[in-house]
Amino acid sequence: MRAILHMTVGVTFILVACAPPEPSRRDAAPAVAKDSQPRIPAIERGRVSLYGHEFAGRTTANGEIFDPEALTMAHRSLPFGTRVRVTNLENQRSVEVVVNDRGPAIRGRIADLSLGAARRLGMVADGVVDAQLEIVAPAKAR
Q1: Is 123 a residue whose pLDDT tops 60?
Q2: Which residue has the higher pLDDT, 36 or 111?
Q3: CATH tag for 42-137 (out of 3.40.50.2000, 2.40.40.10, 2.60.40.420, 1.10.340.30)
Q4: pTM of the predicted model, to two decimals?
């Protein structure tokens, strides 16, 4: 603690500077074990579909060339570069993909997945499955 004395004609001021108070237990953030990861909430559940070879070599909405074997996804609103965990709710298999395109064009679907991602989810034969999307990492600022 530091006290500063300031005097003016007939009045004395004492200004005291001190450290802010410690937060109370009630205000403190809950302790989190170093090994535990915060639970990532599902951002969306719905039907996801496969889009594949017919778009190979074409330019995606973010300017990349579409590679059906890459682990990528088209989504209507997530920023390009967002990493998303997609879980097939029918078999619980999941894969991490990167948003690099806009879509799907078919009403009632929430995402289109590359062939490589669809293989990892075990959905190639079905083409469309119920899935859950979770953001793993937001898009990096440019």
Answers
A1: yes
A2: 111
A3: 2.40.40.10
A4: 0.69
